[in-house]
Design goal:
137 residues; three-stranded antiparallel β-sheet
Length: 137
């Protein structure tokens, strides 16, 4: 009985190592076909609970791996929002899975066209949308 459990354990460890190696290969393949520039972020006061845009607070440039765990700007973390934009450069056609996550509202536009609309009061949630780069978007 112990021998069978040991063998199953070795198989699981080997499978895990293969999946980790595959993940690294996939990541390096992705990095060779897509280049992301820095994100340009503009911060705003919000005027109501539905995300109405108020006065601009400021701008900043964030790195290409942009993500926020806490949304704050200049010491403020309430009643604010931001608009962020970047440019992706692709060296070959393919399908891209865009994923956004937010608490209380987000919209994803690609080349000006709305792809994901989560503009609503909610707890944190994510949505994704596939775009084939050979299609006109």
């Amino acid at each position: 009985m112990r021998k069978q459990i040991f063998i199953v354990g070795i198989i699981i460890v080997a499978l895990g190592a293969v999946l980790i190696a595959y993940g690294q290969i996939s990541r390096s393949q992705l990095e060779s076909v897509i280049t992301t520039r820095d994100w340009n972020v503009t911060w705003y006061h919000t005027t109501d609970q539905f995300g109405g845009w108020g006065s601009q607070m400021g701008t900043q440039t964030l790195g290409s791996n942009f993500h926020l765990t806490t949304v704050s700007y200049a010491g403020e973390s309430l009643h604010l929002g931001f608009k962020a934009s970047t440019t992706f450069e692709l060296t070959q056609e393919g399908t891209i899975n865009f994923v956004i996550g937010s608490d209380d509202g987000s919209i994803l536009r690609v080349d000006g066209d709305e792809q994901i609309n989560m503009w609503l009061l909610q707890g944190y949630d994510t949505r994704s949308h596939l775009i084939n780069t050979s299609d006109d978007i």
